[in-house]
Design a protein that fits this description.
By secondary structure, this protein is of the alpha/beta class. The strands form two sheets. A seven-stranded mixed beta sheet has the order 5-4-3-6-7-8-9. A two-stranded antiparallel sheet has the order 1-2. The chain contains six helices and nine strands. Helix 5 links the parallel strand 4 and strand 5. It has a single domain, classed as Rossmann fold, CATH 3.40.50.
Length: 223
């Protein structure tokens, strides 16, 4: 696998912005060396298009197609860090969006399955994964609230849209000892990032921090 961020020598201004980008991640609590390495290698600028492209290295969410967003980089880092991915893990991501989160996960896991209800987002993300030679990602159009039962169980599950409660089908597709990280909340203004660990008997829930994500919607999109 190639280093997804490698390429021609960068202009001084861009290199400085990327350096500030990594410093911002560390200052906001992203300290895991493997996560920082993955986020250094995966160039967020490849996943932000149009009028917002010049803001790709700022620590803020940005609009993408289909009314969705690319998450704030520090939140991507903190969610990835909480997921504690190992090189042996099979990971399910619910909510492909721009593909940025799946790309980061691909450098940490054995295999990543990512699903989104919007066909356009899945198609564009898959094209970008191929361009970046990220060969261990499978991107599919599907209703993520039901997970991906044909590939279950998963060592890790990451959900990038907020549900009122952790969806039952996703909990059922998590291996014993597996971890799921997701935002939960009853509105788009009051949400918490939750870490769920599946135990031999039941689940352990840990609240991590307040967040704000788009809602998890059932069914497939029209685009």
């Amino acid at each position: 696998m190639t280093a997804a961020g490698d390429g021609p020598e960068e202009p001084d201004g861009l290199a400085e912005r990327k350096m500030r980008f990594l410093f911002a991640l560390r200052s906001r609590g992203v300290t895991d060396p493997r996560v920082l390495m993955a986020m250094e290698r995966i160039d967020r600028g490849r996943f932000v298009r149009g009028v917002f492209a010049d803001r790709a290295y700022e620590d803020m969410p940005l609009p993408i197609a289909c009314g969705q967003t690319i998450s704030q980089p520090s939140v991507v880092g903190l969610m990835t860090q909480a997921l504690a991915v190992t090189p042996r893990d099979k990971v399910l991501e619910v909510g492909t969006g721009s593909g940025y989160q799946a790309a980061v996960l691909s450098l940490l896991a054995r295999r990543v399955y990512t699903v989104d209800r919007h066909r356009r987002l899945v198609r564009e993300a898959a094209d970008l994964f191929a361009t970046l030679d990220l060969t261990n990602i499978t991107a599919l159009t599907a209703d993520g609230s039901f997970g991906l039962p044909e590939q279950a169980p998963f060592d890790r599950i990451l959900v990038t849209a907020a549900a009122e409660d952790p969806p039952g089908p996703l909990l059922a597709q998590l291996k014993i000892g597996g971890i799921m990280v997701l935002p939960v909340g009853q509105s788009d203004t009051v949400q918490s990032l939750i870490k769920v660990t599946r135990l031999d008997r039941g689940f352990d829930y840990e609240e991590l921090r307040p967040v704000r994500f788009v809602p998890l919607v059932e069914g497939l999109g029209q685009d």
